[in-house]
Task: structure prediction
Amino acid sequence: MSNETLTVRHNATGKEVEYPLLKGSLGADTADMRSLNKDLGCFTYDPGFIATASCKSKITYIDGDKGILLYRGYPIEQLAENCEFTEVAYLLMNGELPDQTQLRDFNEEISDRATIHESLRKFFDGFHYDAHPMAMLVGVVGSLSAFYHSDLNIKDPDSRRICAARLLGKMPTIAAASYRHSVGRPFVYPRMDLSYCENFLNMMFSRSSQNYIDQNHYIDPNLVKALNLLFILHADHEQNASTSTVRMAGSTGANPYACVAAGIAALWGPAHGGANEAVLNMLAQIGSVENVPKYIAKAKDHNDPFRLMGFGHRVYKNFDPRATIIRKTCYEVLERTHTNDPLFELALALEEFALKDDYFIEKKLYPNVDFYSGIIYKALHIPVDMFTVMFAIARTAGWVAHWLEMMEETATPISRPRQLYVGPPRRDFVAIVDRQPFVKSI
Result:
């Protein structure tokens, strides 16, 4: 605990109050101002919680100015280069990287928990054939508590860990089932002999007469590696909108399946998990390489509604370290899949043009992870409406890690943000016969 303080003065009353500055292991100091209203009779106004720390966490650290992303202290570059996704998931959940035996046991548990209840599988029959996969994911994940309520004790650490492992294991199965229902293909059961990413691809693309992955038909391991990399890069990202939603729901004592379902719903928004889908929609709007200068000019015009998606980041003010890692993989995937798609040519031309433009250089609007991830998913034949589902599979590792961390705290107050009320002051009721016609102002 630091002895440094922050002094706040209320100029109307002249009252001054000192608030302790909390020191983290990395990052800016944080003023503990929980008693501000009691001391000075006011609240802070911080839309979007831009400058508000809602919790203490040991999981992920971001330095947006320097382009640093750490999982439990490990640089994302090192983890992406050396780890498999489940190894990183274990790290996020437990705080340390596993040894060989721990990783083997963890992989076996995740594989064992990948199977879903047959009655849960029938749950998909209730969805219309063209339901969005994210809609199915929200509903089915939320329903897990109905199937596993007997061992759902969030006060018990072992029960919490089982719930977390269950979510991590079943998410690819539910995601693949959502896709196959949307295209009218039969459900494919998970296999114990495949890795996490292999298993997902097999459940996605196997046909009734042939497994996607078997002795005679095996996917290029470099493409599995690319998917593994994407999952690692998307596994966690500090207190983003969906993770904060999971924590907020968890603060009420809600079960973890409901909490993660709430996180999935938050992730669905185009400003969050749907950003890579928005990149491909933007590329389709641009249309051809010849139109790139025109749309670059439109992006620089503040009066034009067109926005260049996949460039810049709210947190990273210099560059997105995940984009630096994934850029090389993007080119490798395009080369290995022999992809000949005008959209890819357009994306590369747009990237090259923007990186040389003084406006984007000055504003530090570099391509972010969403710019490249959508291109890779498309090359892997992942449908566009599954992009956010892919994000949800990866982010489940971070969601359950944060939920576990929050539940370990001795006291978890229910999340309850305050507001700046700008509505009508107190007024008296008027009988309906005496009311003037209401005209909404525009």
Q: What stands out?
A: The chain has a mean pLDDT of 90.
